[in-house]
């Protein structure tokens, strides 16, 4: 119970420390709900399917199963194999297993938070707006038609991009650039309102650092120090080996 209390206290302090952007974000979501969401939804509902072909193609890219299954399997296999190897390779393989577990946890924790918020807010999906002009919040209810806010797909993409960015900081903007169009596809395909996607992304921004810090306090993947949270030595070795082909390619074209 003491550890649970400390965890809630830590999360509370962490949220209070970020109130400077959470409050403006909440105000922006309210403005979107009041003035922007409906006209944007109607605009994309009337769009020519050929004009949004790219967003149709990537619409399911934010489904968490595409990331939870491979990272979960990789974590189990790598950690199992690491327990049976010699010490040199064991450390690197154990780190890869822990990094896979970190990616899994980043998506899973953020996704579970979104699932809870969906029940709390119980917002009607855009298809109800088109079908019977319903634009409401049912609060503390469940159902596939009333789980619009926040967007789970958008949350998955941003959580994954942030987690990958923690592992490879030099590519963090690339990960976000790749994730944002997939998240926005939920608006273009009228699966969600714009504020739903913003809300899902905000949850990811909140939870991803919390998961990273939890791993760092246990010495998994990261380490905490005076300079902040950084990758462990094994992680820097793995990252350098993974980025080696990209460096060779950049020299070739440099």
> What shape does the CA trace take?
globular
Can you count the helices? 10
The share of residues in extended strands comes to under 5%
For the terminal residues, how far apart are their CA atoms?
A: 57 Å
H/E topology pattern = HHHHHHHHHEEH
What is the averaged pLDDT score? 90
Share of residues in helices: over 70%
Residue runs with pLDDT of under 50 for 5 or more positions: none
User: How many domains, in number, for the residues?
Assistant: 1
Number of strand segments:
2
Outline the biggest β-sheet: 2 strands, antiparallel
Strands of the largest sheet, in order across it?
1-2
What is the C-alpha radius of gyration, as a whole number of Å? 20 Å
Q: Class by helix and strand content?
A: mainly alpha
Task: Explain this structure.
Helix content is 73%, strand content 3%. Helix 2 packs across helix 9 and helix 5 (87-121) packs antiparallel against helix 9 (194-217). It has one domain (2-253). A two-stranded antiparallel sheet has the order 1-2. The chain has helices at 2-17, 19-45, 53-57, 65-82, 87-121, 126-132, 152-167, 172-188, 194-217, 233-253, and strands spanning 222-225, 228-231. It has 254 residues and is mostly helical.
């Amino acid at each position: 119970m003491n550890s649970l209390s400390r965890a809630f206290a830590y999360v509370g302090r962490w949220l209070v420390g970020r109130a400077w952007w959470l409050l403006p974000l909440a105000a922006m979501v309210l403005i979107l709900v009041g003035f922007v969401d409906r006209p944007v939804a109607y605009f994309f509902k009337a769009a020519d399917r050929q004009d949004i072909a790219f967003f149709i193609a990537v619409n399911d890219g934010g489904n968490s199963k595409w990331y939870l299954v491979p990272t979960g399997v990789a974590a189990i296999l790598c950690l199992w194999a690491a327990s049976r190897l010699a010490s040199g390779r064991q450390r690197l393989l154990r780190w890869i297993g822990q990094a896979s577990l970190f990616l899994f946890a980043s998506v899973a924790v953020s996704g579970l938070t979104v699932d809870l918020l969906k029940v709390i807010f119980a917002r009607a999906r855009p298809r109800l707006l088109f079908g019977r002009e319903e634009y409401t919040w049912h609060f503390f209810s469940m159902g596939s038609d009333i789980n619009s806010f926040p967007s789970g797909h958008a949350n998955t993409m941003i959580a994954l991009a942030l987690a990958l960015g923690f592992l490879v900081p030099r590519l963090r903007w690339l990960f976000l650039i790749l994730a944002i169009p997939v998240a926005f596809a939920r608006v273009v395909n009228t699966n969600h309102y714009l504020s739903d996607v913003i809300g899902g992304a905000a949850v990811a921004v909140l939870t991803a650092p919390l998961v990273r810090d939890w791993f760092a306090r246990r010495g998994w993947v990261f380490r905490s120090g005076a300079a902040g949270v950084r990758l462990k030595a094994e992680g820097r070795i793995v990252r350098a080996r993974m980025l080696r082909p990209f460096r060779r390619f950049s020299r070739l074209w440099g």
